[in-house]
Each structure stands twice: as structure tokens, then as C-alpha cells.
Fold this protein.
Amino acid sequence: LVRSGLTREDAYKLVQENSMGVWAGEHEDLESACMNDARITKRLGEKGTRAAFDLSRLLKHVPKLIRRALR
């Protein structure tokens, strides 16, 4: 969201609002909440919003880090 031009504060507010909605039971999870928030999908698109929740991308370097830590 910051890369799309939002300030960190505004990006935080959007994610926080969606997080609180999940906590209140309005959505099943944060990904679905964000996918249903036009303020987010307008900036990131559907593909970009889904990519933000792609665990394979986020965990890509974990095996390497574990090997390094266990040496």
C-alpha cells in the first residue's frame, strides 16, 4: 500500500480497520477482508492484494535461515 502512494499511517489504518473487522466476525480472515475493501483493491488490484498474502513468497528464505542458524 505504501508503494502505491499511501502514507504509512494511512496504510496502517486501512489494514487495522480490516483486522478489526475480522476480529469482530465481519470476515473470515484478513485476506478476504482486504479483497472486499475497494480502497485496497483499487490500489493493488486483485492480483496484488492476493500477492500480499502469498506465504510461499513470504517464507521463501526460511529453509536457508534455518540451515544457517543450525550450523
